[in-house]
Amino acid sequence: MTHIVFNEADVKVLKQAIQMDEALAGEVILIRDDYAVGPLGNLYAGEDIETRRQWWRDVLAGGDYDGKVDSAEVDDYKTVAELVGNMRRNEAENTWIWAAQNKHDVSGYYWLLNYMKEFQGRVFILYLNNLPFINEKGNIFYPNWLHEIPAKEFLKAKKLAREITLSEFEVDPDEWTKLCNENKGVRLLEGGKKLIQQEYDFYDAELKKFVTPDWQKASKIIHQFLSKAKHTTGDAYLLWRLKTMIAMDMFDVQGKVGNMKDFEIKTKASPNPSEGGA
Q1: Where is 250: in which H helix or E strand?
Q2: Among the CATH numbers 1.20.1050, 3.40.50, 2.40.50, 2.40.30, which is that of 2-178?
Q3: What DSSP string describes 206-220?
Q4: Rounded mean pLDDT, 166-178
Q5: How far apart are CA 161 and CA 38, in angstroms?
Q6: Which residues, 6 or more positions from 45, have their beta carbon under 8 angstroms from its beta carbon?
Q7: Which of 82-86, 129-133, 250-254 shows the lowest per-residue confidence on average (mean pLDDT)?
Q8: pLDDT given at position 272
Q9: How far apart, in whole angstroms, are the C-alpha atoms of residue 87 and residue 27?
């Protein structure tokens, strides 16, 4: 059995669950890209794959994750090629795709589905959509992310595994193709597996609310956004949006605009009314 997750934090908790139940034994594979942001196009063809990689290079340039795109650890296409090869060589192998109700996991699921179609009947989905779990304090909650679920609760979640149907293998890729063709930069989960799209600047208005008249490190602004905003995304994307707004001269800035802890920003100082003409 092979398990697929879409967040690094999910790997640890799922491995803990596997240690508790040998019926779950198998390799845990991580799909690393965040397909909820950035250009899509035909992500199964060389030109659009490279367009997306270049977009990520530009987004991450000069920041905390500079160079990550071309590091050996980030290559979903190599990862999925190895997965497909293993499934073809071992006809007894099954794949379980784990996804929580968030745009990141659902976007990853849609991207992955194209490679799994030939294995229909051996690919299972565990979509934790609006399902209650018990947290470490014994309280019922509805997780947005797999890693929010205590490892022991995964033993219950395994009962939710079901085959991805032939109908889903036909309909869901069509839904993904529509999204790819819209050529927008931000995907949001509307409910179930339905994604809608917004422009690249979707998060800007909310992000600006955390910029004050006082100097603050970019890291603090981003962390405030992540803890308080209704719709969130990765810190690398938010850093890129802050830098984009800085380039548009929307904020005052001091320090080297690079890593999020390297510079501070504040709202633009009001011009002195005594300056200038009448």
Answers
A1: none
A2: 3.40.50
A3: HHHTT--SS-EEHHH
A4: 93
A5: 30
A6: none
A7: 129-133
A8: 59
A9: 13
